[in-house]
Amino acid sequence: MNRNFGHSSRSVLLRTAAAGVIATLALATPAQAIVPNDNYTPADISDPADSVNGVGQFFRNDGFVCTGTLINPRTVLFAAHCVNDLPESAYDTNGAIQSAFSFNGNSLPGFIDWLDNGFASNPDLFVYNISQIAYHPDSVARAEGAGFLEGDIALATLSDPAANIPTWALLFSPLPDPGAIDDVDGTGYHVKITGYGRTGSGTAGDNLGIDWRRKSAENMLGALTSFDDRNTFLFGDPFGDLPQVLYRLDFDDPNKTNPFDFNLYKDEPLEVEGTTAGGDSGGPLILDAANNDLSTEDLQIGVLSGGSRFFGEQVFSSYGTESFYQPLFLFADYIAANNPYRYVSAKAGDGDWEDATHWQTDLDPAYRIIDENGNVVNGFPDTQSGGVTQSTPQFGEVCFDLEGDNVGDECLDLATGTPTPPARPAPTPAPTPAPTSSIGVAQIPNAQAATVGDDVQVAAVSAQSAGSPQLIANAAIRGDGMIVENVAISGGATLVEDIAISGGATPVGDIAISGGATPVAIAANGGPEGAEETPQAEGDPFPAATLDNGLAGATDFVPDNIDADVAGGVKARYFEVTLDQAGTTSLNSDVTIDRLNVGGSAGLMINAGSSLSALIDVNQTAGRIAVDGTLSSVGDYSLFSGLLSGSGTINAPFLTNIAGGIAPGSVGTIGTLTVNGNVILSSGSTLMIDIGASGDSDLLAVSDEANVGGTVVFSPIDGFQTATPSTYRIVTAAGGVTDQFDGAAQISAILLSDFSYSANAVDVTISAQSYQNVVDAGNPVQTSFASLMDNNRGNAAVSGLFTFLDFTDAGTIQATFDSWAPTTESTVQAMGQAFLGNVSDFYQNRISLGDRSSNGGTVAVIGRPMQLAATSLGGIAMNGASALSDAAANADDTEVRSGNVNEDMAVYLAGGFVNGDGGSMPLANPAAGSDGEDEFDGFFIAGGLEYYLDESSFIGISAYYSDVDATAALGNSAQSTAIMGSIYGRKDLSGGLILDGRATLGTYNAETLRTVSLGAQTFNLTTDDDSMVYAAELGLSKEIEMFDVIAAPGIRARAAKINFSNVDEQGGGPALTIIRPDYDSIQGLAGIEFKSKPGRKLQMRASMNYVHEFEDNPNSFGANFVGGNGAVAPFALAGRDKNWGEVGVGLRYNMGNVSFDLSADSTVGRSDVSSQVYSGAISFRF
Fold first, then answer.
1. Given this model, what pLDDT does residue 1150 score?
2. Is the dihedral of CA 118, 119, 121, 126 positive or negative?
3. What DSSP designation does 748 have?
4. What pLDDT sits at residue 514?
5. What is the reported pLDDT for 853?
6. How many other β-carbons are positioned within 10 Å of the β-carbon of residue 958?
7. Distance CA 315, CA 473 (A)
């Protein structure tokens, strides 16, 4: 079997999308009756006058009326005998016979309007003209069929799509055999019957004429069987050749008093049981979901053909009569082929609409089958049915079972062919005589011929034994109506409401069961013309799918509607097109279809100069529709989701955007999308607007009213600028703008939109807000950069910064500003302070152990200055301990001899290793792993000449060079070199007082590197600057001999200045012009030194000092972007300590003509700059 589970739910939505506001009133309530039983009146069972449920009344302008069901927007399924009295060609829109369907609960207003307006459809009244009729040729192929007993299936094509009316699902599988038949519920299949026919009561039958009202009833499906099998049971003879099975039901008397009710099909009456009558022909047999477990939806399983009565005095549509329906499963292939409506879709991949290989037919969403698991699914049978010759399957029980315990009562199980007991015993156990006239006025023995109608004569059958019924007639349940013409009511034709359906036209014909009447040769009236049937036998496979046979999977066609031209032999063909496969379909011509559905990842391009017209509506659930040509829809365009774009025109009563996006032009290009109609932008919708230079933007231009809402998304393109506010017109509506947008998806944290609403337009102004509004107010780095950005808006020199930051979010802005922090400035300050301290320590060490007995006449090599310099410059780190150990271990390698050095002179060359750390720039969001300190290390070398004035007084001159590398916070780095020249000396005053001093002049070179990012761009920002350095020191101490140690308490003053210059970072991007503050220092020291007396073989030195800083150095510096405007912004420097300690130790070992010196100096308790200096010396005396 062909099955399709995927389209079932989709079809329900698509078939009802345009009719969502139509209440499905009838058939959703407990069943009512058409001809009700005596406990109800016709008024009780009439559907509401304004109800629309897809069941409609058929009307021919020559008086015939029937009922039918809408199976898609263009097709009504009904009975062949309603039209097969004339050839199909007679039903031409330009011919004498005009016909229509009216679907309202009260069909009369629609028909009057149809007649008054030249047979025109009027969707507002739910009346639709018919342009083409097809009926099954087997309905008129044989005289035995009488035009309605077999093959009684027809389809009407509507001139205009019935877009706002529900459609019905058709079951193309036989109902499963219910098994054992229950005495009360029979087959167990509860059904609903409905139609616009005659009415009356269970006893009187259809004694009331057509009132144009739809009525409904409930019943139990009695049997699936043929006339041959029914008649054989009742009469012992089939009386003809009618093997086709039909769905059947009888009309049971709930009061159990009617003499003609012999329980034809075993079951008991329902509370609101009813039957069909003249004018109901073509109506549906409905398996209702509410009372059956087979399906969750109501299913049409058959089409009403007629009814039977069995007694001469019995009237049609009364108790004891039956109704029979054509099973749809016998005619699935005919319905599929003659249904003019095709559901088609584009194949996956890109293609042109005009390419016939791009398309395929889909399974009709109205078709249902029962799969191998017993589930009702969207599908189509795998094999052909037997049509009018198919006599299987059969189920149910046919009975002759009068009320009471009667001789001859019996039933037959049609599925097994075995007799079964009756279900209606006597109400009391008292014996009764043999029946003679158990059904009263029916007078079964020796019955006479009955008159069915004014124009129909049915011959009597031969006498039967008492208690056996006589088959009097099988009549087509077709009402025959009359039009009273030329009645002057408001200048138009008037349709009389109490038309006598039973008179005025000749019925199609009845079967003469036993002589007397000659069957009417229906074929003589004509029939289907040009029909071409393929051989068919039950179980044969279907032929290959084609567009004509209606099977799924056909290709080689182009969807483009064809209207019926009956006279020209052109059959109607209408298309519902679905695009839901990946790929884009391009339309390059003018095409008309009934409905367009777009979903999935499909795309539709309606190119400029092309047009697509949908006669029902357009439904987009996903995908993209780009309209650069014209898209027209008679109904609404519902944009459930997906994207609508383009610079073309949309013609529709309403374009309703529920949760999709509308982008005039195309994404990234500016255009105007014109809508001739109304536009509703719901709260879940998105309007996408590209904006360029001020005033140049996308536009949604609406001819009628625009009800706006949802979100607007703005996308800047070339020409957009943020230096000044820009204003754009994004919506115009000639019919007025109502409501307001819910908001805008702002372009960024900085660029904000402000809507302005007027009577017929919506404008928006895009402007930049202050960066201060999007940064952390408690983060100094962020607020400083925010200030710089605000001050420099419109500055071409730094416009590149705004190109990225103006269009990003607040989090990115904050993170970017944090990463830009100029952390190297604190490092530069710390390295300057450190080398000044190191210089001071170095010279204090020279002064402390300076005596002629130790130094005079020597050339001293302190440490390994050349090796230190070489290894540092070569990138090899050398720590202080290894430097000192190397100096001692390699004395022979470092000795420099000069035999001509005066003993009052000392020449030295020194070197050492420096490391330490300084406080980092204060950061609110330091990088991961940051410890708040900038680390540095390097080396120094120094050389000098000292002249001794006496044993302990001297004056010296020296040159000093240092090279230090540092790592700063955020992965930045710095390097410094210092070149210094100093004059220093010591004077031994009387009384043990020692006066010493130093004056230094030099340069401090600082290089920095910051690596920063701006979005995906990376910038390496560097500085390289030389600053002058000034330093001086003066100390006074008193040496006190204590045993073998000299203690020298003293005081000291130090002053220094680094005259920094302003620097411009190189490297572009967010490079800064930095206003570096000078470093000024005045320090006071107080401490004590302990040292060994001169001339000892082993001399030691130890010092400790308390230091106080008197100057208040700046805690910040100013900066602006290179080329920036406005004031500089402040950035914090590491805090400066005011008090700390300094300690030092030294050791000299004198061994003959050689002396070894080791020393180490460090700050103590200092957080802003902590440094350690390690040095060594080897001296040789000459």
1. 73
2. positive
3. S
4. 24
5. 60
6. 22
7. 10
Q: Which residues contact 811 (CB under 8 A, 6 or more apart)?
A: none
Give me the pLDDT at residue 848, please: 81
Nearest by Cα to 190 from 43, 295, 117, 264: 295
Contacts of 1111 (CB under 8 A, 6+ apart): 1080, 1081, 1082
- CA–CA distance, 697 with 670 (Å, rounded to integer): 6
Burial of 508 (0-12, 13-18, 19+ CB in 10 A): buried
In this predicted structure, what is the pLDDT of residue 450? 29
- State the pLDDT at residue 1152: 63
338: phi then psi, degrees, rounded to nearest 5: -100, -5
C-alpha closest to that of 129 among 95, 166, 102: 102
Q: What is the pLDDT of residue 735?
A: 98
d(CA 16, CA 70): 12
End-to-end alpha-carbon separation of the chain, Å? Answer: 118
The structure tokens listed for 811 are 């989090």
Say which DSSP state 267 is in: -
Q: Three-class SS of residue 109? A: helix
For residue 680, report the phi and psi dihedrals to the nearest 5 degrees: -120, 120
Residue 389 CB burial class (10 angstroms; 0-12, 13-18, ≥19): middle
The three state secondary structure string of 398-426 is EEECCCCCCCCCEEEECCCCEEECCCCCC
Dihedral class, residue 434 (left if φ above 0, else alpha if ψ from -120 to 50, else beta): beta
Cα 593-597-600 angle, rounded to 5 deg: 145
Query: Phi and psi at residue 124, in whole multiples of 5°?
Result: -65, -30
DSSP H/E element including 1130? strand 1129-1132
Which residues, listed in sequence order, are joined to residue 390 by a DSSP beta bridge?
Answer: none
Strand bridging mode 711-716 / 351-352: unpaired
Q: Are 932 and 1167 in contact (CB under 8 A)?
A: no
Q: What is the pLDDT of residue 904?
A: 82
In the chain, which residues have pLDDT < 70?
1-33, 426-537, 851-902, 928-929, 1152-1155, 1177-1182
The encoded tokens of residue 983 equal 């004059």
Asked if residues 343 and 578 have their Cβ atoms less than 8 Å apart, the reply is: yes
Contacts of 452 (CB under 8 A, 6+ apart): 316, 458, 472, 473, 475, 510
Q: Are 595 and 616 in contact (CB under 8 A)?
A: yes
Q: Residue 813: in which H helix or E strand, if any?
A: helix 810-819
Report the C-alpha dihedral over residues 315, 318, 320, 323, rounded to 10 degrees.
100
- Position 176: which residue type? P
pLDDT of residue 1178: 63
Do residues 597 and 15 make contact, with C-beta atoms less than 8 angstroms apart?
Answer: no
HEC states along 993-1048?
Answer: EEEEEEEEEEEEEEEEEEEEEECCEEEEEEEEEEEEEEEEEEEEEECEEECCEEEE
Cis bond before residue 559 (omega within 30° of 0): no
Helix or strand run (H / E) with residue 763: strand 761-768
The structure's pTM equals 0.75
Which pLDDT value is given to residue 476? 36
The amino acid at 787? S
Nearest CA-CA partner of 735 in 800, 677, 653, 673: 677
- At 870 the pLDDT is 45
CB atoms within 10 A of CB 777: 10
φ/ψ of 727, rounded to 5, equals -120, 140
Give the angle subtended at the CA of 976 by the CAs of 826 and 1169, to the nearest 5°.
Answer: 45
Please state the three-class secondary structure of 604-644 as a single string: EEECCCCEEEEEEEEEECCCEEEECCEEEECCCEEECCCEE
DSSP string spanning 276-340? --TT-TTPEEEE-GGG-SS-SS-EEEEEEEEEEE-STTPPTTSTT-EEEEEEGGGSHHHHHHH--
